[in-house]
């Protein structure tokens, strides 16, 4: 997760697409970087403090999730140390301030996601699916994309512009590949993963990660929301239901030319629930023509990269 100077513009593409006019709560899922857990954890705080103002936590919804027995609780120190949730708070505050008075902001539901396996991601997807179905809920998913370089212990390289994810290999520290530029290989690695996310198939997404080992730090939160969307599609039994992600923007912190170089990738996307019987309500295409020229309708789910800022928690 990079500073706003690196990943901030990419995240802004996704936030620009949001219409929060009907939002009653905002779910925020982010990966755990500093504390190892194999499940998901909830906050014990009642408010999160940002440089712009405080955000209230939806303690009622948090309690509902805790009653499932599938969530643990973050300690205050774990909560304060985790930047994948923290870095979205100023964005959330700012965009809420454009729709609501500060005294009436919708509350947030922070969820810290650990090193979950496929079975648990499907389980959490089942739990969250009813909340995703509710059009008054917004989901924000925090993730960066490929972390490439020796310092990340990931130098996977695709030898051709049409290589499949499983066709690559790890470059040695002094190796000079004769095929595509390293930066072009990273671009393909990320776009292959993005294609799988856009397909809406959780199995495709998992197979891609297993084949390439792409170091997408928010792979588990992304997996959970994909499972929730798949669950919703099955449960409603609507073949016409559109729950797929659409990517808006992609960039990297630098262009790797040598194995000694490194970069982090950033991508932003949205997903919304749409089917034929409500198509008139969500008919507008929100694919941006430019950063400032978009038609906006409320997406049910939002995927984006997270950035660094200074925010602190409050627990009353």
What do you see in this structure?
Helix 6 crosses helix 9. It is built from nine helices and 16 strands. The two termini are 29 Å apart. 33% of the residues lie in helices and 21% in strands. Strands 2, 3, 6, 7, 8, 9, 12, 13 and 14 form a nine-stranded mixed beta sheet that branches. Residues 276-300 and 306-316 have low confidence and may be disordered. The chain is globular and about 60 Å long. It has 316 residues and is α/β, with parallel strands linked by helices.
Helical stretch count? Answer: 9
- N-end to C-end Cα span: 29 Å
Q: What is the helix/strand order?
A: EHEEEEHEHHHEHEEEEHHHEEEEE
The description of the largest β-sheet is: 9 strands, mixed
Rounded radius of gyration (Å): 19 Å
Given helix and strand content, the structural type is alpha/beta
Uncertain segments of ≥5 residues (pLDDT<50)?
276-300, 306-316
The residue-averaged pLDDT reads 85
How much of the polypeptide forms β-strand, as a percent range? 15-25%
Overall strand count: 16
Shape: globular
- The portion of residues assigned to helices is 25-40%
Summarize the helices and strands and which ones pair or pack.
Layout: E1 2-3, H1 4-16, E2 25-31, E3 40-42, E4 47-49, E5 54-56, H2 59-66, E6 71-73, H3 76-81, H4 83-86, H5 89-97, E7 108-113, H6 118-133, E8 137-142, E9 147-148, E10 156-157, E11 169-170, H7 182-199, H8 202-212, H9 219-236, E12 245-252, E13 263-271, E14 301-304, E15 307-308, E16 312-314
Parallel strand pairs: 1-15, 2-7, 2-8, 3-6, 8-14
Antiparallel strand pairs: 3-7, 4-5, 4-16, 9-13, 10-11, 12-13, 13-14
Helix pairs in contact: 6-9, 7-8
